[in-house]
Design a protein that fits this description.
4 domains; alpha+beta
């Protein structure tokens, strides 16, 4: 009885916290828009990072989870996020309070109230500190003596961040190699289009490579960047390092740059993005796409906080448009999003099945805390489908790149998966110069097969961290390794369908293929074959004695001098649930909620109806009824509510948002 009370108390706490509107990921993300100001060559301009003793939010969060994970081992990431978000919010406020105190004391030390150009950034997530500009060294010495200041360091250490990320992925060594025509491999002759805020095409590092574009925001042929984001991304992919005094060079400094401006003042339209994608696919509008640009880089995501209808899965219009562009021959690279470390946080257009979705790492190959994770889960033709995302990861923390001159500096350091995507776009340009005959799938497989495993699961790191030098060193197109699997199988003899073929088209070079499934952290081999298989049965696998659950299946194909693999996740005999009810209901309406498993059987569970300023309605069953409350506020016509389903054995936690309408 005592344990039942503890469980009930724990569930009620979760429900109360779940009804709050602020998400834990949102708390972590706000500071990733803070750009570190790079001061250029002016030796008199000083920028300092002031760090404080209190641990940053990420460390605080991890310590809490580490201390409690044994006590709450059955909780999902979503449950943990809901449980801790109020605690994290309070802690963040305490950090910001210290920031405010420090800024006030620095103002007093400076002896003036006008400090508009002094404080440029605040950090609470990966660092706990503030950035100050133009502060005399004598004042810096006094700041060091403040009791809550841990350290002060100049920001000059960040100016060469891209000089670190380019060698990390091996791009600088690629420039010394030669293509079949004897030219250095720099991306020469390969086009990269940026759908973003435009490009500052007058920037010394970008002017030579800029070839044109269009401003969809203002409907003219001048996609000049007034925000900075597009210029920063373009420099990562193809900056030339022409600006005097800098050694900065992008991944593919010989590539051609095109700009499609759809953003201004951080505002843009998804329809403009799709229009720009069409322009890149068919530049002259004659419906013949053979003149398409080679690569499109998109470091933009749908804002998940707006809950746009129809987005967040591979069937949304933006994802489908990207798939079709890839089918036309374009390689589309997109950022995974900065929604944090929770599962299922990949957002559109990272949900595209055929795009290269890129997550972020730092300079020591750790996944950035802000980098979105998979899997992507959606409903299609009555089935729940799952896809591993991101596909690959690349440097995205404190990346120094080009910035429009009117921001008072030619360079700036920024973090985000927005910075990771152009690293991969530049790598694709290098590969296309060497292998212009390769199809998009060949390019993607080359990148994935040569990526460096950094020890994370596939829905965190994808294939691993980008290594373009290893991809360039492949002598031919990688073998074809493709799995064609359903998302759910009963425990029985199941047919594993797919393709295992040599990439050269010559079967003599084919050696073997192997199938594995993952049990805990180990890959267990279930079959090995020595003949090519083209879109047919690779193996019939007896799963009768397996425990029910989610399994990763890996196909590994070897040819004469290289190998490929593909991993997919399947559900074998494991019950999962979906919530079935109307998305919109009327006030005072009695409505029913069904809890269904994958074969649409009703599953009894604890079902909770949450509406703001109302006590939760709680019922148990596979089909239950609730009554929607009256909307009291005369100024609103709709309000959001939630259906939450909890099943303890086995543990489920699902939620669905609905709208109550007058």
């Amino acid at each position: 009885m005592r344990y039942s009370k503890i469980i009930i108390f724990f569930i009620l706490n979760i429900l109360i916290l779940s009804s709050l509107s602020v998400s834990i990921d949102a708390l972590f993300l706000k500071n990733y828009s803070n750009d570190l100001k790079i001061s250029g060559n002016d030796s008199d301009l000083k920028t300092y990072l002031i760090e404080f003793f209190d641990e940053p939010l990420a460390e605080y969060k991890n310590n809490i989870i580490e201390n409690l994970k044994d006590k709450i081992s059955t909780s999902s990431n979503n449950l943990m996020s809901s449980f801790f978000k109020e605690k994290i919010s309070n802690y963040k406020n305490s950090l910001l309070s210290t920031h405010n105190t420090a800024e006030n004391e620095i103002k007093n030390l400076l002896g003036r109230s006008n400090t508009e150009n002094i404080f440029s950034s605040r950090f609470t997530l990966l660092l706990n500190g503030i950035v100050v500009d133009n502060v005399p060294s004598i004042i810096i010495d006094k700041i060091r003596n403040l009791s809550y200041v841990k350290s002060i360091s100049p920001s000059s250490q960040l100016q060469n961040s891209l000089d670190g990320s380019v060698p990390l992925i091996g791009a600088d060594k690629v420039w010394d190699l030669h293509d079949k025509l004897g030219k250095n491999i720099t991306g020469k002759g390969v086009s990269i289009a940026f759908i973003d805020s435009g490009i500052d095409y007058t920037h010394p590092d970008l002017a030579d490579n800029y070839k044109g574009g269009y401003d969809l925001f203002n409907n003219d042929n001048d996609p000049m960047d007034t925000d900075g984001h597009g210029t920063h991304c373009a420099g990562i992919a193809a900056g030339t390092g022409k600006h005097s005094g800098y050694q900065y060079v992008g991944v593919a400094p010989g590539a051609d740059l095109y700009a499609y401006k759809i953003m201004q003042n951080d505002t843009g339209s998804d329809l403009d993005l799709i229009t720009a994608l069409e322009m890149a696919t068919d530049p002259n509008g004659d419906m013949d796409t053979s003149d398409h640009l080679d690569i499109v880089s998109i470091s933009l995501n749908i804002d998940p906080n707006l809950n746009p209808e129809g987005y967040g899965h591979p069937l949304d219009r933006m994802s489908l448009a990207i798939d079709r562009a890839v089918d036309s021959g374009i390689l589309v690279v997109v950022s995974a999003g900065n929604q944090g470390s929770g599962e299922e946080t990949i957002i559109t257009p990272g949900t595209s099945r055929k795009a290269i979705t890129v997550g972020a790492t730092n300079d020591i190959d750790n996944i950035a805390d802000f980098s979105s994770r998979g899997p992507v889960i959606w409903e299609e033709e009555g089935e729940t489908k799952t896809m591993i995302k991101p596909n690959i990861v690349a440097p995205g923390v404190a990346i120094t790149s080009t910035y429009p001159e009117h921001f008072d500096s030619y360079y700036r350091s920024v973090s985000g998966t927005s910075m990771s995507a152009p690293h991969v776009a530049g790598a694709v340009a290098l590969l296309l110069q060497v292998h212009p005959e390769w199809e998009p799938d060949d390019i993607k497989k080359a990148l994935y097969d040569t990526a460096i495993d950094i020890g994370e699961n596939n829905n965190t790191q994808g294939a691993g961290r980008l290594d373009v030098l290893a991809a360039i060193n492949l002598s031919s197109a990688p073998p074809k390794a493709r799995l064609d699997l359903k998302d759910y199988y009963d425990k029985a003899l199941i047919k594993i369908n797919g393709t295992a073929m040599n990439g050269t088209g010559n079967p003599i070079d084919f050696e073997s293929y192997s199938l594995f499934y993952k049990l805990k952290n180990d890959w267990i081999k279930i079959h090995e074959g020595y003949s090519e298989v083209n879109n047919s049965i690779l193996y019939s696998w007896d799963t009768t004695n397996l425990e029910s659950g989610y399994y990763q299946i890996k196909l590994f194909v070897e040819s004469k001098d290289q190998a490929s693999f593909e991993i997919k996740e399947v559900n074998i005999g494991y019950e999962y649930i979906t919530i079935q009810c109307n998305d919109t209901i009327f006030e005072k309406e009695c409505f029913n909620v069904k809890i269904l498993n994958q074969i649409e059987e009703e599953v009894p569970a604890l079902v909770v109806f949450l509406s703001s300023f109302r006590l939760p309605q709680i019922k148990y069953g596979g089909k239950v009824n609730f009554t929607a409350p009256k909307i009291i506020n005369p100024l609103i016509t709709t309000k959001k509510a939630k259906i939450i389903v909890i099943k303890l054995f086995p543990t489920f936690y699902e939620r669905k948002e609905i709208i109550i309408s007058k």
